[in-house]
Amino acid sequence: MRLLRALLAASILWACATRAADLRIGVAADVTSMDPHFLNLQPNINIGWQVFDALTHVDENARLIPGLAVSWRALDATTWEFKLRRGVRFHDGSELTAQDVVFSIERTLQVQNGQLRPFTQRIVAKETPDLYTVRLKTAAPYAMVPYDLNSVFIVSRKAAAGARPEDFDSGKAMVGTGPFRFVRFARGDRVELARNDKYWGGVPPWERVTFRIVPSDPARLAALLSGDLDLIEQVPTADLDRIRRDALLQTAQKISWRTIFFHLDQREQAQGGGARNPFRDLRVRRALSMAINRQAIAERLMDGAAVPASNLVSPPVYGYAPDLKPDVYDLEGAKRLLAEAGYPDGFATTLSAPNNRYVNDEQIAQAVAQMLARVGVRARVQAMPMNVYLPKGARGELAFAMLGWGSFSADLALRSLVATPDPKKGFGAFNWSGYSNRKVDELLERAFATVDDKAREELAREAMRIAMREQAVIPLHHQVATWAMKRSLSYAPRTDEFTFAHHVRPR
Fold it and tell me: Is 373 found in the same domain as 267?
């Protein structure tokens, strides 16, 4: 009998160990490239963090912490020095050195059509006094170098020399220092990884990890319920109660850094705006904002998994301006503003949105269109997949467009979304509206040149106040990021919405 019990116990332990060796994660958005210096898209970056590292990391509250660099400091107004973590090895066994860092920074400027250029183009010179020290010089004082380099993954100079995006997709150049080694990328289906037993941050608990690409909310949830997946991100809000009632499942939530908002094309002649562009009038933009019932969207459509927004960053994020409040829902006030602007009977427009990127994105667009109809604005909803949507927005083809953005500081969000476009400075890369205010640009430039954190944060807040009071965009809500998983697992939810396999733990 004792032998039988011992064999049974061993069998159970073996089965548990076998199950713990594999982790299957369902992700909501397609992964389009493995090249860490090609496309600046969250799904791609999320995979990148499993295989690569950056000089700086951020914690679960989106605050900067050491990564491959154990420390950094400003030597003078235009020079930053980074001290590298010693003994870090790439997956091929070679040691990380300052030369790999310099190579990675330079590569962001060389990849054809690469989107990481704004994070490195202010660096005008690079020095490597020794194997573990990197000094980066900018033409003018610039305090954001440590923040920008959080977006630059460090690749192996040996493996990535001359590599093209397809060399990363195949795995040939996919050599990093991260917690997992690359195994296989099946486009539109999955990314397979294997544990890096020599990871400097500690051995991950999983031998193998599979990121399954499941854009359909019902299909992703069904795979979790059936046991085909162990954890999923971007949980459908309508199913939260069902998951919480399931004794075998649990959820983890945290207010996200992702803000959902609307761009309104404020150029002289907006796409689809007719002979006269109503969005150029501040009264019209304010009226549209007042016609949106943010609380109803947060409570009913998002089932409480959203917080009405007044800023382009959420409350935990550096530079959030707490004195700004969401616009009050006021239909009569909105009608008066429209009449004052010369639109007593409203006008027609097209409201564009993705239908496979943000939580309930198309449903939100439909709800907003119905709200606008109550003040006479006839908005036809045009929803499309994100891979079609983004290029249209970048070309200025969308007059009234939903977008979601996450950033770990207000000035960085403003730089991308509302600053006057200037490719040399990296300003306005996603400024689809054409909004431009010299004062906002000046405040951002001053913030980026200010090493004093408190002074810089107040400059960022002032820029946010100006842009939001002018309705540079119409903020809608901050998402509450939600993960669902088997009760046998735990995950510390993150403001940045990333799903890190090495942070998933067996309970």
Answer: yes
Give tens-digit pLDDT for 241-298. Answer: 999 999 999 999 999 999 999 999 999 765 544 578 999 999 999 999 999 999 999 9
What sign for the dihedral angle of Cα 179, 185, 187, 188? negative
Whole-structure pTM value:
0.81
The parent domain of residue 438 ranges over 257-479
Q: Is the pLDDT of residue 69 over 60?
A: yes
Query: Are residues 205 and 298 located together in one domain of the fold?
Result: no
For the chain, the C-alpha Rg in angstroms (whole number) is 24
**Spatial contact of 236 and 363, defined as CB atoms under 8 Å apart:** no
- Residue 139, both tokens: 């033409």
**Pair 271, 412 in one domain:** yes
Q: Which residues pair with 486 in a beta bridge?
A: 249
Q: How many domains does the chain have?
A: 2
Tokens 């509450």, residue located: 480
Q: Is residue 5 part of a domain?
A: no
> H-type helices in 427-497, by residue range?
438-448, 453-469
Task: Give phi and psi for 460, each to the nearest 5.
Answer: -65, -40
What's 197's domain CATH number? 3.40.190.10
Half-sphere exposure of 50 (CA within 13 A, CB side): 29
